[in-house]
């Protein structure tokens, strides 16, 4: 076997092994997307009912709450960025980080100081590498977030917004996550979580246009709102975490699919080259034999005379 | 046919129970409250505790609810809880062990949670 041919054979073997791995990862990601989507669907009833309740309090009373009142001169804002713990997901993390950076730049243009909170090792690594300050970070649960994780993330954020701005609190809370539109499309979006505009909530509510009854609040509208709003924020963060997880798995699936396809193309090309090299070896061998034989024939023909 | 109300018991990550009922008893921060069909629209904060649902076929469903809300309007009652379990899903031995552990660790929150679970089972 020629040296050239051996090199090609070796490369084909290694690419085939890689292809097997990416194919397996693609299939794992595909099954996880389905699971993650199911979790998003399972969390919907709670979110819907909660939104309905918030709408009811918002429209049924004139209660003021720190989580719904806008500061006159917002000077500090918190940005919560959701990324994943692991890479191999195409542009998933860089898109989310880019969206967060655009949002940060916009907020800074508006004269606000920005505190960054990050979920996911990838985002943390990005900010640490650039030696930027991270107010708080969470890692380790991005593949399958639980409601407890969402609570853990929400707690310091709610605390920060309830604190006075002068004592290190924030006036606004923004969240950047990757929305799961479909298997093929996931978009990084940013939205303002707090202060909550009750009017917007009412518009987003699935019961739009329905006239809500006059509720009897137990114990009082203020207390209900007090208890309700943090739960609402938690549920929004939970939903964002779940969507982000589903998007990550979909992005991984797509990235791994194109890796598998590329490996297939590469193997095809290398096989062609290997065939050509083998053919060249054979041709050379034949011409060597033919050349050698005719030289021998010439030599014997000469000595006979 | 007796009047009925539609009940949805939902936890943060799943829908726990839904169906028709004639009476729902839950504990709000200002005391136990019973809701029957035709109740005035209500929105209340729940204490952690057992919730009793009398279904329209006479059976009783008990669930351990750890904090949350009750809302009733248009003959539809929703119980929202971060964590909710039906009493038949609760593993009594595990809850007892959790109670012991919580007591020895002086973890008031976990103790309360285990206690609510056990009370829900007892009320079954």
UniProtKB/TrEMBL annotation, chain A:
Function noted in UniProt: Produces ATP from ADP in the presence of a proton gradient across the membrane. The gamma chain is believed to be important in regulating ATPase activity and the flow of protons through the CF(0) complex.
UniProt record similarity statement: Belongs to the ATPase gamma chain family.
SUPFAM superfamilies: ATP synthase (F1-ATPase), gamma subunit
Protein name according to UniProt: ATP synthase gamma chain
Membrane topology label: Peripheral membrane protein
Coiled coil: none
Keyword Nucleotide-binding belongs to the record: no
InterPro entries documented for this protein: ATP_synth_F1_ATPase_gsu, ATP_synth_F1_gsu, ATP_synth_F1_gsu_CS
Predominant localisation class: membrane
Oligomer status and interactors: F-type ATPases have 2 components, CF(1) - the catalytic core - and CF(0) - the membrane proton channel. CF(1) has five subunits: alpha(3), beta(3), gamma(1), delta(1), epsilon(1). CF(0) has three main subunits: a, b and c.
PANTHER family with a match to the protein in the record: ATP SYNTHASE GAMMA CHAIN (PTHR11693), ATP SYNTHASE SUBUNIT GAMMA, MITOCHONDRIAL (PTHR11693:SF22)
Record keyword Acetylation present: no
Source organism of this protein record: Streptomyces ureilyticus
Localisation: Cell membrane; Membrane
One Pfam family linked to the record: ATP-synt
Gene name as annotated: atpG
Keyword annotations: ATP synthesis, Cell membrane, CF(1), Hydrogen ion transport, Ion transport, Membrane, Transport
TrEMBL record, chain B:
Cell location: Cell membrane
Record membrane topology: Peripheral membrane protein
Limits of the ATP synthase F1 complex delta/epsilon subunit N-terminal domain: 5-83
Primary location group: membrane
Keyword Signal annotated: no
Keyword field contains Ion transport: yes
SUPFAM superfamilies linked to this entry: Epsilon subunit of F1F0-ATP synthase N-terminal domain
Key words, A-Z: ATP synthesis, Cell membrane, CF(1), Coiled coil, Hydrogen ion transport, Ion transport, Membrane, Transport
Pfam families: ATP-synt_DE_N
Matching InterPro entries: ATP_synth_F1_dsu/esu, ATP_synth_F1_dsu/esu_N, ATPsynth_dsu/esu_N
Stretches assigned to coiled coil: 76-112
Family: Belongs to the ATPase epsilon chain family.
NCBIfam families reported for this sequence: ATP_synt_epsi (TIGR01216), PRK13442.1 (NF009977)
HAMAP family named in the record: ATP_synth_epsil_bac
Record function comment: Produces ATP from ADP in the presence of a proton gradient across the membrane.
Subunit structure: F-type ATPases have 2 components, CF(1) - the catalytic core - and CF(0) - the membrane proton channel. CF(1) has five subunits: alpha(3), beta(3), gamma(1), delta(1), epsilon(1). CF(0) has three main subunits: a, b and c.
Descriptive protein name: ATP synthase epsilon chain
Native source organism of the sequence: Streptomyces ureilyticus
Lineage start: Bacteria, Bacillati, Actinomycetota, Actinomycetes, Kitasatosporales
Gene that produces this protein: atpC
């Amino acid at each position: 076997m020629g040296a050239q041919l051996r090199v090609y054979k070796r490369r084909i073997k290694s690419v085939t092994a890689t292809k097997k791995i990416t194919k397996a990862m693609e299939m794992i990601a595909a099954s996880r997307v389905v699971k993650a989507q199911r979790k998003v669907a399972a969390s919907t009833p709670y979110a819907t009912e909660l939104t309905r309740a918030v709408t009811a309090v918002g429209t049924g009373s004139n209660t003021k709450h720190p989580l719904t009142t806008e500061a006159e001169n917002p000077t500090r804002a918190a940005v919560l960025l959701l990324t994943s713990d692991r890479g191999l997901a195409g542009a998933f993390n860089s898109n989310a980080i880019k969206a967060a950076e655009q949002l940060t730049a916009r907020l800074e243009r508006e004269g606000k100081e920005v505190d960054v909170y990050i979920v996911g090792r990838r985002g943390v690594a990005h900010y640490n590498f650039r030696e930027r300050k991270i107010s708080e970070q969470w890692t380790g649960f991005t593949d399958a977030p639980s409601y407890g994780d969402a609570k853990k993330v929400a707690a310091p954020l709610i605390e920060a917004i309830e604190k006075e701005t002068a004592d290190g609190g924030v006036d606004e809370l923004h969240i950047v996550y990757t929305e799961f539109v479909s298997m093929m499309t996931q978009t990084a979006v940013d939205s303002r979580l707090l202060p909550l505009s009750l009017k917007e909530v009412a518009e987003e509510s699935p019961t739009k246009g329905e006239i809500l009854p006059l509720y009897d609040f137990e114990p009082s509208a203020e207390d209900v709102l007090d208890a309700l709003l943090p739960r609402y924020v938690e549920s929004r963060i939970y939903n964002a975490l779940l969507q982000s997880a589903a998007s990550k798995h979909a992005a991984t699936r797509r990235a791994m699919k194109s890796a598998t396809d590329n490996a297939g193309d590469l193997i095809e090309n290398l096989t062609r080259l290997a065939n050509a090299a083998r053919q060249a070896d054979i041709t050379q061998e034949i011409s060597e034999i033919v050349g050698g034989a005719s030289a021998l024939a010439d030599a014997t023909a000469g000595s006979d005379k | 046919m007796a009047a009925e109300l539609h009940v949805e018991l939902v936890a943060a990550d799943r829908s726990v129970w839904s169906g028709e009922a004639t009476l729902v008893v839950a504990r709000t921060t200002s005391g136990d409250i019973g809701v029957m069909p035709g109740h005035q629209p209500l929105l209340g904060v729940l204490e952690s505790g057992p919730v009793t649902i009398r279904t329209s076929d006479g059976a009783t469903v008990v669930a351990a609810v750890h904090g949350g809300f009750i809302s009733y309007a248009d003959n539809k009652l929703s119980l929202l809880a971060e964590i909710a379990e039906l009493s038949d899903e609760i593993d009594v031995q595990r809850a007892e062990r959790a109670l012991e552990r919580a007591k020895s660790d002086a973890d008031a929150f976990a103790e309360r949670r285990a206690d609510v679970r056990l009370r829900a089972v007892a009320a079954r």
